[in-house]
């Protein structure tokens, strides 16, 4: 990072020194742009406990992990479901240092608080708390959830993920030694009504020796439970397990919105949580931002050099149409989860994790194309028990405009060529179906019965079908109407 004085004008000014702002600033600086980060604090390791699927971290970030678990499980009932997917706890100090290194000493950090920004004479003027006026050709809002310069508008109000966690020592293990528990929905210590209204689960990591990170988490709720409530839930769980903590080293309160829509592009570019990039089902964002940063930086660098609209290019790179359409599908699912009775969430996730690994990975991934996502969503519906499926479908149908629009968008969406030109199935494959690369990979991996999934997901299409489970000459519009009627029928809405 540069300590040299910098003219008040830079190519880019990034508001915020969290992982997203710094990741983008580093990539911009690495492309030889002058970059100023303004944040109310000096460069410092990020405070939250960040976890990520190891395979979602870019290769350069994989050494920035404090610990990686291969024994990763969920409990949606008495028995664990192994996830067979390594999960990492990030080493925030190493991540910070690596990002600063990637900036190659061309980043200028100004400790201050931004209060506003306005465009005059083709330049952005950014105001600091003490009356500073910095100018830049492009401003990036990476100020975190809600956004300072690009405020997020949460439809129906913000729906929050909340959690209360501690790092502590335990005489008896509160979760399996050597393991990471991504989700434990067992709650024998609560009565059903409590679970129904306030569903929470345990997220736990064995750190070393008798040290564990244990966190009671509410996946998503509106209104959200309070910190006191979540802390009480955690201690009640540990008490019931007979594993009270001793020597608590630290605690953490987590609360952030999950239901950001795809933002409208504007003159200021947003990035990270401020750009609505928190995953609406998992709440993850960090790995996605590390992956998005080079692409967005490249688009910005190229357009700035040409004297073109860098904000527009950045928005296009960050939120291409497929991602916008995918967000609609995710928000539809989030709406359904919000309305699912809490005591059914365990069953929902049991069905979710019974999906082929490639499917649930794709569902939780930040960049999954809309058709793939819509298909995965249909598969979750198909695999869920009716006690879960009916409330989900009813919830979806409460917002018919949104859901139909999302499904239609999903089915119409043009995805990259490899999806629109399916190749022939390998000889001897049952039904001689044509498949996309994605579905062929799944089929080849042996963890998916393609025909069965398509039949379940698309209400009975069989034989020679494409990647959506539709026969080549089918009238898509008609098929969607049929799907709607089927959903209405099983939900009771059609009667
Ligand atoms: C406690 C917690 C745990 C989380 N755990 C995970 C996890 O395990 N995995 C995961 O992927 N995601 C997780 N998330 C979600 C999300 O990834 C994080 O919130 C992440 O920090 C968002 O990164 P960001 O850089 O976009 O925003 P932030 O990290 O919120 O950074 C915002 C930056 O903007 C600065 N800022 C704010 N206002 C101003 C201003 N007026 N002027 C200048 N600077 C300003 C802040 O000081 C900060 O530097 C978690 C969130 C929380 C709150």
Describe what you observe in this structure.
Residues 421-432 have a biased composition (Low complexity). Keywords: Carotenoid biosynthesis, NAD. Residues 411-420 have a biased composition (Basic and acidic residues). There is one protein chain. With 495 residues, this protein is an alpha/beta fold. It has 3 domains: 9-48 and 91-152 and 261-319, FAD/NAD(P)-binding domain (3-Layer(bba) Sandwich); 160-257, Alpha-Beta Plaits; 322-491, no CATH class. It has 16 helices and 19 strands. The chain has helices at residues 19-30, 92-103, 192-197, 227-241, 286-306, 310-318, 321-339, 345-354, 357-364, 370-383, 386-397, 400-412, 417-420, 437-444, 450-457, 476-491, and strands at residues 9-15, 35-39, 51-53, 65-69, 72-75, 80-82, 87-90, 107-111, 114-120, 123-128, 133-141, 160-170, 180-184, 201-208, 211-221, 245-257, 269-270, 423-424, 434-435. Helix 7 (321-339) runs parallel beside helix 10 and helix 7 packs across helix 11 (386-397). The protein is globular, with a radius of gyration of 24 Å. Flavin-adenine dinucleotide binds at residues 15-21, 38-41, 48-52, 113-114, 142-144, 148, 252, 254, 256, 272-274, 278, 283-287.
List the helices and strands and how they pair.
Blueprint: E1 9-15, H1 19-30, E2 35-39, E3 51-53, E4 65-69, E5 72-75, E6 80-82, E7 87-90, H2 92-103, E8 107-111, E9 114-120, E10 123-128, E11 133-141, E12 160-170, E13 180-184, H3 192-197, E14 201-208, E15 211-221, H4 227-241, E16 245-257, E17 269-270, H5 286-306, H6 310-318, H7 321-339, H8 345-354, H9 357-364, H10 370-383, H11 386-397, H12 400-412, H13 417-420, E18 423-424, E19 434-435, H14 437-444, H15 450-457, H16 476-491
Parallel strand pairs: 1-2, 1-11, 2-8, 5-13, 11-17
Antiparallel strand pairs: 3-7, 4-7, 5-6, 9-10, 10-11, 12-15, 12-16, 13-14, 14-15, 18-19
Helix pairs in contact: 1-2, 1-5, 5-6, 7-10, 7-11, 7-12, 9-10, 10-12, 10-15, 11-16, 12-16
Bound molecules: flavin-adenine dinucleotide (FAD).
Flavin-adenine dinucleotide is lined by residues 15-21, 38-41, 48-52, 113-114, 142-144, 148, 252, 254, 256, 272-274, 278, 283-287.
């Amino acid at each position: 990072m540069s300590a040299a004085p910098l003219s008040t004008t830079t190519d880019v000014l990034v508001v915020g020194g969290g992982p997203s702002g710094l990741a983008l600033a580093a990539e911009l600086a690495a492309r030889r742009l002058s970059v100023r980060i303004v944040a109310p604090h000096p460069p410092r390791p990020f405070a939250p406990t960040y976890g990520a699927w190891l395979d979602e971290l870019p290769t350069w970030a994989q050494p920035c992990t404090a610990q990686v678990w291969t024994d990763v499980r969920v409990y949606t009932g008495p028995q664990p479901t192994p996830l067979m997917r390594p999960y990492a706890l990030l080493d925030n100090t190493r991540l910070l240092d690596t990002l600063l290194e990637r900036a190659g000493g061309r980043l200028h950090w100004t400790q201050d608080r931004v209060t506003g920004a306005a465009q005059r004479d083709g330049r952005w003027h950014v105001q600091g708390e003490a009356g500073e006026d910095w100018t830049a050709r492009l401003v990036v809002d990476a100020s975190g959830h809600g956004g300072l310069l690009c405020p997020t508008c949460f439809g129906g109000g913000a729906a929050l993920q909340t959690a209360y966690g501690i790092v502590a020592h335990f005489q008896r293990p509160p979760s399996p030694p050597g393991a990471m528990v991504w989700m434990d929905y067992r709650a024998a210590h609560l009565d059903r009504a409590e679970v129904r209204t306030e569903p929470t689960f345990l997220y736990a990591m064995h750190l070393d020796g008798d040290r564990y990170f244990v966190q009671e988490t509410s996946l998503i709720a509106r209104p959200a439970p309070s910190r006191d409530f979540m802390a009480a839930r955690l201690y009640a769980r540990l008490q019931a397990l007979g594993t009270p903590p001793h020597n608590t080293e630290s605690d953490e309160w987590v609360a952030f919105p999950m239901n950001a829509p795809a933002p409208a592009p504007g003159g200021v570019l947003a990035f990270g949580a401020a750009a609505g990039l928190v995953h609406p089902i998992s709440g993850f964002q960090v790995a996605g931002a590390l992956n998005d940063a080079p692409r967005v930086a490249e688009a910005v660098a190229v357009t700035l050099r040409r004297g073109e609209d860098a904000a527009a290019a950045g928005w296009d790179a960050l939120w291409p149409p497929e991602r916008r359409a995918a967000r609609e599908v995710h928000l539809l699912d989030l709406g359904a989860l919000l309305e699912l009775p809490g005591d059914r969430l365990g069953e929902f996730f049991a069905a979710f994790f019974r999906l082929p690994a490639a499917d649930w990975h794709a569902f939780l991934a930040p960049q999954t194309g809309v058709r793939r996502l819509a298909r995965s969503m249909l598969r979750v519906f198909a695999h869920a028990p009716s006690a879960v499926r009916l409330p989900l479908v009813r919830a979806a149908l409460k917002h018919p405009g949104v859901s139909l629009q999302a499904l239609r968008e999903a089915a119409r969406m043009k995805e990259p060529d490899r999806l629109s030109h399916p190749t022939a199935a390998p000889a001897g494959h049952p039904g001689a179906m044509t498949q996309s690369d994605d579905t062929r990979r799944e089929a080849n991996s042996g963890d998916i019965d393609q025909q069965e999934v398509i039949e379940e997901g698309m209400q009975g299409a069989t034989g020679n079908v494409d990647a959506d489970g539709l026969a080549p000459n089918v009238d898509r519009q008609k098929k969607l109407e049929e799907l709607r009627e089927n959903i209405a029928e099983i939900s009771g809405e059609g009667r």
